[in-house]
Amino acid sequence: MVRPIRTVAILAAVGTLVVAIALPALATGAPASAGTAAMTSQQLAAHHAQSIVVASEAMQAPSAREQFTATTPEEIATKKAADEARALEAAKAAALAATSSAMTASVHSSMPSIAQPGQVIYPMAAGSYTLSDGFGAARTGRSHMGQDFAAPIGTPIYAIADGCVSISQSDYGGYGDTVQISHPALSGAGALASLYGHMSYRAVSVGQCVTAGQYLGDVGNTGWVSGSCLHFEVLINNTEIDPLAWLQSNVF
Ligand SMILES: [Zn+2]
User: What's the rounded Cα separation, in Å, for the pair 163 and 246?
Assistant: First the structure.
């Protein structure tokens, strides 16, 4: 398995690597290949009148690491150190990715409210959507029980009124990623709720109470939908009513 010539080359490379790592200040006294590198650098320096010693050494070290097969305790220790260094780099990259995702989440959660507490508003900012299919529009096997607000994926969705989150889940049947809010303060004889479907991102969780205009998440195309839109419903005692008619008579 281990070819003698390759082993010698490997040992030489490891020796150079160990010296280069352990004694960088004494690199001039290093054996064969470091001397070759120094000569090459000097020749290049003579031709180009600038030093690229750092670059040539930096290029050399990783390729030596890639090639050796660990057979002696020293090699195993060196390889282990290299593996640990790589693992550390991977952990750093993962931490950086997590930080970046946390930053994205904090950008989302710092989205300003677009209404005053107690107010009733449309679920999206004026100008950010187009009304498409309405309540009662034809659907295969049933009629459409909500109002669609067509908009690009990522367009913000807001709570239409103060309330508390009763549903926040992905894959809520054909609704895809869905949020539902109960609105006790607006409930008369029947319990009023609003539902937001097909979302690409949900910023709220079940049990969380929100104020009118609070950011709930983003428009998406999850669930049974063609094109991206907010599927918006208003329910009284869990029965859908015409949400656009409700908004028109309650938003001032
Ligand atoms: Zn819809």
Answer: 17
* 21 token code pair: 């790592």
Q: What are the two backbone dihedrals, phi and then psi, of residue 69, each rounded to the nearest 5 degrees?
A: -105, 125
Output the CA 237–ligand 1 centroid distance in Å.
20
Q: Which residues pair with 138 in a beta bridge?
A: 143
Q: Report the separation in Å between the CA atom of 231 and the middle of ligand 1, taken as the mean of its atom positions.
A: 4
Query: What are the strands, taking DSSP E only, across the chain?
Result: 130-131, 138-139, 142-143, 147-150, 156-158, 163-169, 177-182, 192-202, 209-210, 215-219, 229-236, 239-241
- Percent of the chain topping pLDDT 90: 52
pLDDT tens-digit profile of 74-110? 776 777 777 887 877 777 777 766 666 665 566 676 7
Q: pTM of this prediction?
A: 0.60
Contact 124, 230 (CB under 8 A): yes
Mapped to the 3 state alphabet, what secondary structure does 39-65 carry?
A: HHHHHHHHHHCCCCHHHHHHHHHHHHH
Cα 223 to ligand 1 centre (Å)? 10
- Alpha carbon separation from 193 to 42, 218, 234 (Å, rounded): 78, 19, 6
Q: Domains, the chain, ranges and CATH?
A: 4-91 (no CATH), 130-250 (2.70.70.10)
Which H helix or E strand runs over 74?
helix 73-109
**126 CA to centre of ligand 1 in angstroms:** 19
State the distance from the centre of ligand 1 to the C-alpha of 170, rounded, in angstroms: 16
